[in-house]
Every structure is written in C-alpha cells, then in structure tokens.
Amino acid sequence: MSTQNFIEIKSLYKVFGPKPKSLIPMIQAGKGKQELLEETGHTVGLNNINLDIKRGEIFVIMGLSGSGKSTLIRHFNRIIDPTEGQILVDGEDVLTLDENSLREFRRSKMSMVFQHFGLMPHHSVIDNVAFGLKIQGVAKNERLEKAKTWLADVGLEGYGNQYPSQLSGGQQQRVGLARALCTDAEILLMDEAFSALDPLIRSEMQDQLIELQEKLHKTIVFITHDLDEALRLGDRIAILKDGELVQVGEPKEILLQPANDYVEAFVRDVNRARALTVENVMKPPVNRITTSTIGEAIEQMKATSKEYGYVVSNEGFEGTVLQETLEKAVEGEDCCAEDPLTDALFETVAEISPESLLEEVIPETLDNERPLPVVDESGELKGVLSRSGLAKALGSSV
Amino acid sequence: MSWFTDFPELSRETLVSIRKSLDGAYRGFSREYGENIEAFFDPLLTFLVWFEKLLLATPWWLMIGVIALITHLAARSWRLTIGVIIALFLIGLFGMWEDTMSTLSIITVSTLLSIGIGIPIGILMARSDRTQSIVTPALDVMQTMPAFVYLIPVVMLLGIGKIPGLIAVIIYAIPPVIRLTNLGIRLVDREVLEAAVSYGVSPWQKLWHVQLPLAMPNIMAGINQTIMMALAMVVIASMIGVAGLGQPVLRSITNQYFALGLFNGLAIVVLAIIFDRVSQAYAKRSQAYLGGRE
Questions:
Q1: I want to staple A170 with a disulfide (CB 3.0 to 4.6 A). Which of A22, A73, A201, B228 is the partner?
Q2: Between A297 and B213, residue with greater pLDDT
Q3: Measured between CB atoms, does A128 come within 8 Å of chain B?
Q4: Do B210 and A120 touch, CB atoms closer than 8 A?
Q5: What is the largest CA-CA distance in chain B?
Q6: Is the CB of B205 inside 8 Å of chain A's CB atoms?
Q7: Which domain holds residue A218?
Q8: Chain A contact for B9, CB < 8 A?
Q9: Whole-Å CA distances, B200 to A81, A100, A103, A105, A133
Q10: In angstroms, what is the C-alpha Rg of chain A?
Q11: Quick one: pLDDT at residue B291?
Q12: B54 versus A314: which is more confidently predicted?
C-alpha cells in the first residue's frame, strides 16, 4: 500500500439555495449553519472539507443523517457540483472536466454502490451487472462473460436471469457490488451501501467486502452512519457533523483519543470489544526474563517484585514461569539453580495475538489471574494483557 | 350610478367590432395561408385515404385474421383473441363492417400521430420545469375547451374533411399521453438515475436505457387514455365529414333512429374494448419484471 494521496479534497464548500456563492465569505467569517439558514434561507451542506485519501485504503466517512455525508460522496464523481473548492483524483482536477471527459472519468475511474441499490428494475441481474460496460459500448458477449464472473465472485452464480425484484435485499446489494466491480474502476464509492440490510446480512456483506478488498486493493470511500461498521471496515475514518469534519484518524485514534465531546458521545456506545485489538490496549512486558538458568530467573523476578515472568530468548518468546514453581524445583533434589529453564517448568498459559479483537480474547484473559503474553506471528513477545487492562479498555471512560 | 346595478360591460359596438376584427383577421389569415397549410397536410391526407382504402379493400376474413394475430402477439391470450374475433364478426354481421374500418383507420392514424408528437413533448416537459409550466395550461385548454369551438377555426382554415377531423381528434386526445409521459419520467427513482449517471451515461443513453423504460407503465396508461379519447371523438369528427361509425350515429340523432344509434354506438364500444384490452395486456406483459417478490 503506497502512502501517496490518491484523492484530495481541498477546502470544499457546498451551499444549497438561490445564491450559494454569496454565502462563502459569511461561512468563512464563522457564521453558524442555523444562523445562515434563518438570515439568508441558504443551507450549508459542506463547510471547508479537506481530505486526503490514499491509494488502496478503505476510507470511511461517518456521520448522522443531515451531516452532509451523502452530499460529500456525490462530489467525488460530481453528481453534485461544489460551490467552491477542489477535488483532485490522481492529480487531476475533476472540476475542470468538460461534459465528455467527465463522462469518461465516471466510466473508467469510479463506480458507486447505493443505499437502496439503484438497480435497473427492468434489466435482468446479469444485465444490471454489465450495465457499466454496456454504457461504455463493450460488446454484448464480452460484457456478459465478465458480468458472469463477477456475479459468481459475489456469490450469486446462477441468478443472472432473475429480475432484481425477485431477489432479497442482501442479494440485490450483491448485484450492486458486482455492478460496481465489473467496470474495473479503481475507486469504489459506497453510499450507506449496507445500511438498508438487516444486521446479520450486513455483517455478512462487511466480511465479503473485506475479503474482496484483500484480493482487489481498491480505493474505497465508504459512507455510513454506523460507527461499529466504520470501525470494522475503515483503515481511516472521518467524522462529519453539520457539514464539517470533526476528526479524521485511524479507528483506534477515534476510539481512544476522541477529538471532542461529539465524537466522545459517539464512541461511548461502541462495542469496544469488537473495535479494538489486543495491540491497541496491551501494556509493555516489564517482567521479561532474559536468562536461561533457573537461579537467575528467580533473581530477575525478585527484582521486578512480581512472582511471575515471561521468558524471552534470541528466538523470541519461550514461555511463562512462576516464581513458586521455580523455587519448588530448586528445593527439589533432581534440580539446582544452575540448571537451564526447560519446557517442563513453563506454565500452560494461552498466548494471544496482537491482531486479535478484544472480543476474541475475553475468555482467556478472564480465566487467568496473571496478564497474558501477547505474541506476534514471528514469535516475538509484544506485550501483555491483564484482566484489569482489558476491563479498563472496555469500560466507557476513555 | 348605472355601474352599481348593471355590470359595466363593453358597449355593443365595441364587442361587435372586436369580434369582427378578430374574425376578419383570422379570415384574412386563412385566405392568405389556407392553401399552403392545406398543401402541408396533403401527404398526410394521401396516407389517410390510402390507409382507409387498404382496410376497406382487404377481405373481411383476412382483416379479422390480421387483427386477431396482432391481438395475440400483443397479449398472448387465447381468450382475448377469440373474443376479438367474435366481436368483429358480430360487427360485420350487423352491417357495420365498412364504417368500422373507416373509424379504425382514422383512430389508428390519430393515435400513432398522438404518440409520435406527444411522447417527445412529454420528454421535453420532464426535462425542464419551465417547459412544463408553459405546456400544462395549454393541455388544460385543449382538454376543457368544447370540441366544437376549435372545430370552427380548423374548418375555416381547412374546410370539411378528413384532415380537420384528424386534427380535432388529436387536439382532444393527445393530452393524456403528454401528461403521463412527463409524469412517468419525473417519477423515475432518483437513485436509479444517479446510478446511471455515476456509470457515465450520456443524456441520450439515460433517456433510452433508463427513463423511458421505467416511465413505460405510465406512458402506456397515457396511450391507452389517448386511444379511448380518440374513439370518443368519432361522433363529433363525423360532423365535419369524417366517415365512419360516427355518421350513422349523427343520422340517428337527427332522425330519432334509436336502434341504428345503439348498434353503431355499441360498435364504437367494441372497438374501444379491443384497443383497451390489447394495449393493457401488452403493457402488463412488457412489465413482467415488476412482478415477483416484494
């Protein structure tokens, strides 16, 4: 994933009303949305939006109804024209495009998925998927062939000859997704794409999107009013309120460092167990034991005043030891302080992965009095997660 | 204080002079341009005459066969097809075959012209609110102005005959197809339109692939209404010399022939039912996609 800015939005304003241009100076002077509506009858849709979206990321724009999120996404492909501002896609200023180049731009660069699917009711499913290609003038056989493979990819093989009205909501949105993917556009705009689906189907669709994204590496702009969804899908999240950006950041930044009360109020109701990973909340492992003999291990433990420790060698994490076990071993007859630490002395404690969601590690963490070691794929000890640490992260106070 | 009890109306002389000057101006206009306008409509007249002759010259059994075939292709219903055959046969049996063919020819031509003119106007109306605000009152006038009133200038201009009759029928019958085309296009789901735009449709593609197909249920309803209204105009059109089922009805009014009027009236009803059922069945069949799970 390169870090280059793929889509840039610079000081974008959108005002609805008879004389939108005339309001820009007033907005810039800091007049509020409500005030302007009462004084001038104009509605401020978007107020000084600045965004950088990187190639290959899922960028979620989150806001409640009326926050301007749907207005904002319609600026990306200029279904709505801004009152003022700049929209750069891959370095190209979208606002300077004339009608023909705009059409070409929409055909090749972006495709869109809609909240209520926006399928053509008079076309069969396969024709819906092939719609973008048909508009581009791709020959019938070729476009149907391609549509067929995409339909299979979203799990709707064999539904091609049905009409949208014969499908369930989830299936219809799969058609919408297949239609968007079928044009091979680099950018996918998803306007509340899963909001109209019931919860079970929604999380299924989210999984499918994540799965597809791992394969396709599209740049996805995803609109939602659901913070759980935003946290689950987003590489980065922008929070929009009354047409203004409140905070832009990675999910954990939003969760752990909310920019203001508004975001905090949002974050309060989030299921943190499903949004945060072990990595986000683990503590550094203070009581590492970096020796291979029992005696020194006991010494190191005493130094940290903890009756347990995590043994780390050059190869990475070895295991968890208890002071009690080691002392018993030394007191015994078949062992002395100079002997190396062997597997037999290690406790059978679960290791957890830093990428796991908190939800997945709750049982193990609660089962253990002592903090669990967090070990990554290469066997490195990354940190520890204690019961109290988990409880604190899941609690509502930030 | 005469204005207090009597309406302060214009004097008789003024009114007469207004009427006279209007009549004079129009008469002048029709004298000046009547021939040109008539010449303009000549090809249409030729076609009308040819089409009527064609229908009349075709043997009755072949004609019934052709209509039954069209019915079946459009509706795919044996019941309807057999009903149409029986109805047409009865019309012939009661001696109204020729008049029915004349009426059929003028109705067919006026309906086709109404569709050909009405749908484009409806599309233009749907594209701009300004056009809509201009066309709508015109349609209101066309639908409420008594037919006889606009027959006068048409007859003054073009005389008595098929063309003035055709124009009268179209003026009366065209509003529904215009109105419903406009309405149908305006009712197309916004998100579906946005979807089309976001995939880069040209205005023409948008109209052809999205707006018209989705407006079709409404447009078909408009066409259906237009046909019905055209049939309703048959009697009035016969007053200015259009041949067909209206002529005997007119005769039976003046002579009090109840049975004659009833038979011909029923024949008009039968034609109306055939047109209605066939166009409805076709519309329903072509919108099969609307069925299914909701």
A1: A201
A2: B213
A3: no
A4: yes
A5: 76
A6: yes
A7: 5-109+185-270
A8: no
A9: 15, 9, 5, 8, 10
A10: 27
A11: 54
A12: B54
Look at residue A357 and tell me if it is in a domain. Answer: yes
Residue A264 falls inside a structural domain? yes
Same domain assignment for residues A10 and A38: yes
Does the beta-carbon distance from A122 to B294 stay under 8 Å?
no
Q: How far is the alpha carbon of B60 from chain A, nearest alpha carbon, in Å?
A: 39
Q: Are residues A51 and A100 in the same domain?
A: yes
Helix axes B258-286, B97-127, angle to 10 degrees: 40
Fold of B43-287: MetI-like fold (1.10.3720)
Q: How many CB pairs under 8 A join A and B?
A: 82
Spatial distance between the Cα atoms of B244 and B233, rounded to a whole number of angstroms: 11
Task: Identify whether residues A365 and A320 lie together within a single domain.
Answer: yes
**CB of A137 less than 8 A from some CB of B:** no
- C-alpha triplet B66, B71, B75: angle, nearest 5°: 155
Select the residue of A79, A110, A120 nearest B210 (Cβ to Cβ): A120
Note whether B285 contacts A: Cβ–Cβ < 8 A.
no
| Side chain identity, residue A160 | G
Domain contains A120: no
Residues of chain B with pLDDT under 50: 292-294
- Look over chain A and give the mean of its residue pLDDT values, rounded to a whole number: 87
Identify whether residues A100 and A204 lie together within a single domain: yes
> Is beta strand A5-16 parallel, antiparallel or unpaired with respect to A43-54?
antiparallel
Is residue A98 included in any domain, yes or no? yes
* CATH number reported for the structural domain that contains residue A262 in this entry: 3.40.50.300
Q: Any idea what the CATH number is for the domain that residue A386 is in?
A: 3.10.580.10
Residue B170 contacts A where some CB pair is shorter than 8 Å: no
Same domain assignment for residues A224 and A370: no
Query: How many domains are contained in chain A?
Result: 2
Rounded to the nearest 5 percent, the helix, strand and coil shares of chain B are: 85, 0, 15
Instruction: Encode pLDDT of A120-154 as tens digits.
Output: 999 999 999 999 999 999 999 999 999 999 999 99
Point out the domain boundary residue: A270, A296, A324: A270
Residue A223 pairs in a beta bridge with A61, A191
Examine the pLDDT at A325 and tell me if it is beyond 90. no
> Minimal Cα distance from A135: which residue of B?
B201
Contact B130, B117 (CB under 8 A): no
